[in-house]
Amino acid sequence: MNETIDILKNHRSIRKFKDESLDGETVRELVEAAQSASTSSYVQAYTIMGVTDPARKKALSEISTQSYVENNGHLFVFLADYHRHYELSQDKGTPIAYDKTEQLIVGTVDAALAAQNLAVAAESMGLGMCYIGSLRNDMAKVIEILELPKGVIPLFGMVVGKPDHAGSRKERLPFEVIYHENMYKPVEDVKDSIDAYDKEISEYYKERSGGRRDDTWSDQVIGMLSKKQRIDVDAVIKGQGFLGQ
What we know:
With 245 residues, the protein is an alpha+beta fold. It has helices at residues 3-9, 24-35, 54-64, 83-92, 101-124, 139-145, 175-178, 191-209, 217-225, 233-239; strands at 46-51, 74-81, 128-132, 152-161. It is 45% helix and 12% strand.
């Protein structure tokens, strides 16, 4: 196994950091690594925002409900962004439209690819990181806090810093459940693998929680997906000019 694959396979989310801010050189290295990711048709429909202002970080932490959004080495927020493209199109007299689903997908995928590059770069430097999807708990408020113009939406955050705990690695679904070749496998064909995985995850939670938790992966995700979540997201995205009006 080479060093890069070893880093990828040993990923773990870090939620407690030493009280040390990342220096400017490190931030630049991480962002430039992120920018080296693939981008659809060279559009580069994303922006990475670093949030260092204590008041803004605190406000974002309150939206997230996670203390480590405020307490970290550096907070990055990844944005799908067509604002610059729109402004440039006005200057050139060739107006563009970004209100279709395809443009939303392109911006989201571009941002996600850049973010994963940044995450791997951070871990290769001995730093810890954790994605913050909970910024979508109130997208409208995030837009207000970060003063985002039309054509820009906040997708997720990422906290990075020097780890103050080891974290724990969660096993992923088995290879045969995730990898399908040439045609989609019926769920019943991999049900035994999922059942075995559920038992493994239940044991993981028992050990990590001292017996206070023993839910399976299936129970956890089905319980989450059975509830309506963040129902305001569609309206906020449309308000920023995506997906039509």
